[in-house]
Amino acid sequence: MPTLSECKEYYTGLNQACGKIIEISFSSPSAHQYSKSHNFCSDLEKWISLQNDRPEMELTKAALKEYQFSLLAVAQGQYRQAYMALRLSFELALASIQFSANELNLRQWMQGGRDINWQSIISSDDGVFSINFVRAFNPSLAEDSRQYRTIAEKVYRECSEYVHGNALTHKHLSDKIEFVEDVFLDWNTKAESMKLCIVFAFSARYLSFYPKETRKQFEPIIVDILGHLDAIRALFTE
Fold first, then answer.
1. What is the rounded CA–CA span in Å between residue 238 and residue 235?
2. What one-character DSSP code corresponds to residue 173?
3. How far is CA 224 from CA 126, 138, 227, in A?
4. CB 50 within 8 Å of CB 206
5. What CA–CA distance (Å, rounded) separates 80 from 166?
6. Torsion-angle region of residue 10: left (phi > 0), alpha (psi -120 to 50) or beta?
7. Is the dihedral of CA 70, 74, 78, 81 positive or negative?
8. Are the C-beta atoms of residues 159 and 190 closer than 8 Å to each other?
9. Residue 90's closest CA among 149, 155, 32?
């Protein structure tokens, strides 16, 4: 049995290896993509600060924590853990929007009496990207919702392959802790897709209820991502 000192030496070595991978990650050709992914933290923080009086923000805060952990894991070369945390962050962020429309379900979740259910979140009948859900809060975005549901389903399924340890993921990931450019870029691509879906769901659920002054605070974030949608541009030109 290894001694406490030997255990410390082993994990100190792993920590040093992760530190070297961070240096490589930030000097890679894909580092600018990582910077964009990191900037989404400040977007979520603004969302939380402006809605901190709403109970569903507890899920959004949890989503932010998991997203930050995912960012750290991918920078360190711990790629499977990065995908796992990214998927959980996505679930929490969308569950926050889903539960905002049903406070009973939210309170039950906060008390440990209800689980987050992905199939419910993504339901074509009443999930956060369903026409029924979006129409109830922002009718002008209802017809655009299908494409974001498709994106959300795809990226969630792809991250789930790493969560469940599917065979192909073992081929993509190294047995050692080391930088893998293709995986690093793939994680950032998935993070970008999730950001697109989260911002759409957030805009559909809340944006039309904000006064003009509050909407302006979100304009740089939302127009940069969803400015191609007529309904989004209209909300910022009223």
1. 6
2. S
3. 28, 19, 6
4. no
5. 11
6. alpha
7. positive
8. yes
9. 155
Write the pLDDT tens digit of every residue in 133-154.
999 999 999 999 999 999 999 9
Residues ≥6 apart with Cβ < 8 Å to 42: none
Residue 59 vs residue 214, higher pLDDT? 59
CA dihedral angle for residue 60, residue 65, residue 66, residue 70, rounded to 10 degrees: 130
The residues, ordered by sequence, that sit 6+ positions from 222 with a Cβ below 8 Å of its Cβ are 199, 203, 207, 232, 236
Neighbours of 12 (CB within 10 A): 10
- Tell me the DSSP string of 202-225: HHHHHGGGS-HHHHHHHHHHHHHH
> pLDDT tens digit string along 121-138?
999 999 999 999 999 999
Give the span between the Cα atoms of 71 and 69, in whole angstroms. Answer: 5
Q: Residues for the chain: how many in total?
A: 238
The answer to whether the beta carbons of residues 83 and 187 sit under 8 Å apart is yes
Quote the pTM value. Answer: 0.95
Which residue, 123, 177, 116, is CA-closest to 153?
Answer: 123
Q: Where are the domains of the chain?
A: 30-206
d(CA 140, CA 144): 8
Angle ∠(148,104,90) on CA atoms, nearest 5: 30
Number of neighbouring beta carbons within 10 Å of residue 10: 11
- 12 confidence band (pLDDT: 50, 70, 90): very high
Handedness of CA 140, 144, 148, 153 (dihedral sign): positive
